């Protein structure tokens, strides 16, 4: 948002950054107004980060650096909003916001054999591994914890380390397993990753049809629907609704027998 157009500006900065200093270049370009010296403030309100550049001359480029110490806990977040405001005297001449995405040094990945699990007697099988930005595997230890939907810690695996870098683990669900979203928490050094899986006594209806498709008025839209309860196929009636992406109110509904 601009207050007026008497001065223009240019900000160059990385859209992504790793766990390091965040460097931004700021250029104040002469406009039709008479401003020659401008005070510029970089601020991220939720994170309490603020820096000022005073008496920035039009036509020059200045580097602004936020060190790792400046960023603090921001480095554990993925997104950061930074507001920029320029003033000449008491007059605000521009303001805007930019966002940054911190890219991980290490991507932690959790793979499960299923997304939904049914109790009793089911065992959750999963593997944990890490990949660096240069595609090399993480070979250090993992600390892993499992909590149920009520936030109760159910299991921990400490200092799990494999020569291959892939830790394969399992957790048997009891007959009294709490239904809902379970949470796996993985730590590898300073990197953290979380993943959810679901425990329930029924399966969601499975629909195999394109979520988005292009319709030319000639070809039919086809797919199939199936449903299970406690691991067994069930029959019933499914209500299927489709609509154009450009017009959500133009709805087509059909009732289909599932058998």
From TrEMBL:
The gene coding this protein: LOC116952817
UniProt protein name: Uncharacterized protein LOC116952817 isoform X2
Keyword annotations of the record: Signal, Thioester bond
UniProt source species: Petromyzon marinus
Ranges of residues in domain Macroglobulin: 120-199
InterPro entries named among the record's database cross-references: A2M/Complement_sys (IPR050473), MG2 (IPR002890)
A GO term for molecular function: endopeptidase inhibitor activity
């Amino acid at each position: 948002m601009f207050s007026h157009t008497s001065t223009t500006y240019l900000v160059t900065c990385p859209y992504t950054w790793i766990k390091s200093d965040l460097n931004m270049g700021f250029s104040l370009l002469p406009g039709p107004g008479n401003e020659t010296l401008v005070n510029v403030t970089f601020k991220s309100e939720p994170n309490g980060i603020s820096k000022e550049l005073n008496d920035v001359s039009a036509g020059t480029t200045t580097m602004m650096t936020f060190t790792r110490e400046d960023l603090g806990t921001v480095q554990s977040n993925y997104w950061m909003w930074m507001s920029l405001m320029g003033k000449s005297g008491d007059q605000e001449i521009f303001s805007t916001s930019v966002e940054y995405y911190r890219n991980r040094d290490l991507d932690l990945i959790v793979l499960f054999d299923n997304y939904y699990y049914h109790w009793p007697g089911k065992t959750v099988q999963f593997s944990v591994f890490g990949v660096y930005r240069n595609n090399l595997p993480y070979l250090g230890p993992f600390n892993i914890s499992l909590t149920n939907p009520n936030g109760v810690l159910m299991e921990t695996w400490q200092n799990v380390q494999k020569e291959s870098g892939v830790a394969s683990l399992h957790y048997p669900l009891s007959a009294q397993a709490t239904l809902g979203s379970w949470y796996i928490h993985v730590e590898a050094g300073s990197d953290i990753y979380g993943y959810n899986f679901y425990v329930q006594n029924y399966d969601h209806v499975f629909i195999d049809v394109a979520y988005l498709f292009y319709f030319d008025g000639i070809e039919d839209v086809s797919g199939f629907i199936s449903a299970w309860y406690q691991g067994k196929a069930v029959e019933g009636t499914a209500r299927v609704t489709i609509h154009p992406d450009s017009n959500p109110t133009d709805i087509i509904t059909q009732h289909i027998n599932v058998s």
